[in-house]
Write a structure and sequence with these properties.
Length: 533
């Protein structure tokens, strides 16, 4: 089920597989194609619609527009890494569960015996594995995995002769009390919503014991070919009574090793004690490694994120992203993505509220101090870099990621993808600047301004303000030309700067751009009409 509450159901369409491991297995052949880093980048990206005209809307409407930025998602290298790991986790979990294999029914019966506590030695090795994703609160773990899950249908319908409804993935939140029984009940409810079954009514009532629920949960997972089980907020196991966390972890180990269902754990740094001890035995031969997301470092990934986000401005004055603004945003968010986005949104809100209609480093620091009081102690601990201070906040305790680095896949392709995307963005900006430059120069020539002077004015202004709009560029260019022009060249401008400014101000009251106001007043000719042959 996606964030909108809709279940992505798809009839199975089988595609030939290039890898021999995946050939002849309908559960894998029906999955979407394996993505390259470039394709994953494009599919994971989510850039909300944006119209620059919205900057001229009333204050209360712009406040509403700001919320749109919370849906913005800019993939960086760690997201591409996670997508590849999940893709492998899902597919290799199905390798040992081929419904066309003669051993499939035998495996189902054997799994049933294992879950009922019978001493049966499996003669088919599970290909399922597991891995964990831990990170600071607000670093974007849940958002990232939900974006990745959205790339897959949740249900695949296999018609005759298979007659199987395949649950590709199932995401559960660990109960707040860390109870295995509550988790099982949630599992039954989620499966019922997906399939229209009545498993909760049959197996999830109070009269059912935990051991009975666990048995049924394992059977259902195998019966409906669950591709991967994602357990979020695993740190809640810390609140489990007595041996509750141990029981739940033992069940997950059974799912992976005996039933063949891959399990992915997601949690904050508080979960490290559980995941490093109780779940270690389930990691044998996973090949995925564990992922630890701490705050983003100040580098290419951070710059890509901020540059993409910075395009979404609803304040009247377009603010160019400077190195100082970038550094201030990083300093005040400490590389925590959620906080960085909130700071940018709140700073725009403050600019609208105060009427300043601009963002400055001082404003960002003021907003961080006033509106993010609850996270300030944690941010100060991160700024200090002192382990003794950071340890006071378990959710942000940095970890020894040596094991993770040993298992890490080569990041060359991923970094190359990020670099290519940055180059494409730079190319798009260059094309935009060239287009604006040509239009404004033609418009100035239409005012009988010398072509060389027009070009000098436009290129000078554009170099100072790379993100300037066409209307603002025209306005500043006219002022520049007025200042550069000698008295003997008064014919260059048909009105002085004050007169032009007056026209522009009147246009603002009518919610008309500066360019359009000057055009309506007859000071800007239509280049297409003026120079048409």
């Amino acid at each position: 089920m996606n964030n909108n509450g809709y279940i992505h159901v798809q009839e199975a369409i089988y595609q030939d597989q290039e890898l021999v491991d995946f050939q002849g297995n309908p559960l894998i052949e029906a999955l979407p194609p394996i993505l390259s880093p470039d394709d994953a980048f494009d599919k994971l990206s989510f850039f909300p619609e944006y119209d620059e005209k919205e900057r001229q809307l009333s204050d209360h409407l712009r406040y509403h527009a700001l919320i749109r930025l919370t849906r913005f998602f800019q993939p960086v290298m760690q997201h591409l890494d996670l997508e590849q790991r999940f893709s492998r986790l899902l597919r290799y979990g199905y390798v040992g569960r081929n419904p066309l294999s003669p051993d499939y029914t035998k495996q189902l019966n054997m799994a049933h015996c294992v879950l009922n506590g019978k001493d049966v030695k499996p003669d088919v090795r599970s290909t399922a594995s597991s891995f964990t994703l831990m990170g600071f609160s607000g670093i974007g773990k849940t958002t990232a995995i939900e974006r990745i899950l959205s790339l897959y249908p949740q249900l695949l319908i296999h018609k005759h002769p298979l007659n199987i409804t395949q649950i590709v993935w199932l995401k559960l939140n660990c109960p707040h009390d860390g109870s295995l029984k509550s988790l099982c009940m949630d599992f039954f409810i989620k499966v019922d919503r997906l399939l229209g079954t009545n498993y909760y009514e049959r197996f999830g009532g109070r009269r059912n014991s935990i051991s009975s629920m666990v048995t049924r949960m394992g059977q259902i997972a195998r019966l409906h070919c669950i591709g991967a089980l994602i357990i979020d907020e695993i740190q809640h196991l810390l609140t489990a009574k007595s041996s509750g966390s141990e029981k739940m972890m033992n069940f997950f180990v059974t799912l992976v090793n005996e039933i063949g269902v891959p399990v992915m754990m997601i949690g904050t740094m508080r979960a490290r004690s559980i995941l490093q001890q109780d779940f270690r035995q389930a990691r044998r031969g996973s090949g995925q490694g564990d992922m630890v997301w701490q705050q983003m470092s100040k580098g290419d990934d951070w710059d890509l994120l901020v540059e993409s986000m910075w395009q979404y401005q609803w304040i009247r004055q377009n603010v160019e992203l400077t190195g100082e603004l970038n550094n201030t945003l990083y300093e005040e968010s400490q590389g925590i993505v959620d906080i960085a986005v909130k700071l940018f949104v709140l700073s725009q809100g403050r600019a609208i509220e105060t009427g300043e209609e601009t963002i400055t480093p001082g404003m960002i620091r003021k907003v961080a101090s006033d509106d993010l009081k609850l996270v300030q102690p944690m941010l100060k601990a991160l700024k200090s870099g002192l382990l003794s201070e950071i340890e006071k906040y378990e959710d942000i305790v940095p970890m020894d990621i040596e094991d993770y680095l040993q298992h890490r896949i080569s990041s060359i392709d991923l970094r190359a993808t990020i670099q290519r995307k940055k180059e494409k963005q730079a190319e798009a900006r260059q094309q935009r600047e060239t287009s604006i430059l040509e239009k404004v120069i033609l418009a100035l020539i239409g005012l009988d301004i010398d072509a060389n002077l027009a070009e000098k004015a436009v290129t000078t202004i554009l170099k100072q303000y790379p993100s300037i709009t066409q209307a603002e560029l025209m306005q500043k260019a006219l002022i520049f030309i007025a200042e550069q022009s000698a008295p003997k060249n008064k014919k260059i401008l048909k009105a002085d700067v004050n007169e032009l400014q007056k026209i522009v101000d009147q246009g603002k009251k009518k919610k008309v751009s500066a360019y359009q106001a000057l055009q309506e007043a007859g000071y800007i000719k239509n280049p297409l009409e003026e120079f048409a042959l």
